[in-house]
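Page 37, continued from 36.
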């Protein structure tokens, strides 16, 4: 006697195309917002304690390409996992987690970048303590 087992649905992910498109649109929106929020520049001049020439600086904060790579990676992994899922509950959970990651990753990166940029002291930069993603050309006046 043989027992028949039901084959898993072959195109279960097809029913979730609108959610996947929405996930991609929200991810793109957050990627653009990150690109805008993680831009900053600051400049000024410092008088060195040794009495030498005045030192002027310009610091520029730029978005990290690594953040965009992580966002793309999350999206691709979520699509692959959703395509292999066998229940609608699994697909829903995967897409929900990916949607959360696609706004948490750039928001966290932007907040950390801007906070490190705003709290850094130009005087400490003179000793080589420049924060990550900050260009720091020093030019004597």
């Amino acid at each position: 006697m043989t027992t028949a087992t039901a084959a898993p649905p072959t195109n279960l992910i097809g029913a979730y195309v609108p959610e996947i498109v929405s996930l991609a649109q929200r991810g793109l929106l957050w990627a653009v917002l990150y690109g805008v929020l993680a831009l900053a520049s600051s400049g000024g001049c410092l008088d060195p304690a040794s009495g030498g020439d005045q030192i002027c600086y310009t610091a520029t904060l730029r978005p990290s390409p690594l953040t965009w790579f992580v966002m793309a990676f999350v999206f691709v992994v979520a699509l692959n996992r959703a395509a292999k899922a066998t229940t609608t509950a699994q697909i829903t959970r995967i897409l929900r987690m990916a949607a959360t990651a696609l706004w948490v990753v750039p928001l966290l990166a932007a907040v950390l970048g801007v906070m490190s940029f705003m709290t850094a002291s130009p005087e400490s930069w003179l000793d080589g303590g420049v924060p990550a993603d900050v260009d720091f050309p020093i030019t004597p006046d």
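The longest strand covers residues 40-46. Flag for discussion at group meeting. The mean pLDDT is 77.
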